[in-house]
Input
Amino acid sequence: MLPEPFQTYVRLGFRIFPAQGKHPMFSGWQAKATSETKQIAAWLRQYPQANWGLATGNGLVVIDVDPRHGGMASLQELKSKYGDALKTVISHTGGGGWHLIFRTSDKVRNAVNLLPGIDIRGDGGLIILPPSIHPDTGRRYEWVKDYAPDERDFVPLPEGLAVQLRAPAIVKYSSGETASQWSKLPADVALRLPQVCPWLKDAVDAGANRVNYSQWVAMASWAHSMTDEPQLFFNWSKPYYEFDEREARAKWHQTATLSPVGCASINGQACQTCPHRAANSNPVMVLRKQYAAERGESGAFGAPEEAEEIRQLLSNLANTGNNLRF
Output
């Protein structure tokens, strides 16, 4: 028989997996995460000191509140808008934040910085579960009193948030013939992105300008949309001590399903005179168009046919001040 809280997690149908710190213990964790007692018992024997993660999506969506980046004020904003609709199952993270876990019948995309310090963990995402220990603070993840999953029911994601998050995200990499998927860029081409984006060039040249959290997430989204390898993003993060490799590795996992953030969301000094910003584009799309031209092809190399239309829509949304970040 499994010890608690694992019996509860199995009863709830939580798809869980062992983690090292805030990172999955193995690759392919999305497919391997399970609620099967036999497999969880085997992992408990194999990884007795492991933390434990929850694969989100499949009916579960999480509001991830990070007070270090303004999450408390944003949570108060959500409370004033949605009130009791936020009274769902809640855990207190070892880093001082909160995970609010909701049920949903929709496919919900991940979103980073939906509001300052508020991320959404949906399909393809993950959170760390109690009783895991935070790798930096040494504090345990704990269920909030009276808000644990054996004390209260999961409530539906508030409709206003559900509407925002139903918009389809672009799948990054091609694993077949599907036209709506992205393909990877050759490594030497991906390295050229700072030549396309003057803001990024300043950012990676020994910290020539300061990168805030939202801009750093944008950098992760650009790297993800070009390559499977995290080293490019790690190199871009190196000039910034607050975004060390441990933080960068965690953010790489968390942003795995994001499509590239638009130029309008960066708002750096170098952006003011950049011609690509005026086109409501993003630097990855610009680089793909350049590479296609070099190959004697039209369009944007390896990008889905509808990507430009979707990017235009998302950029317009960002410019209307609705605080969404993609």
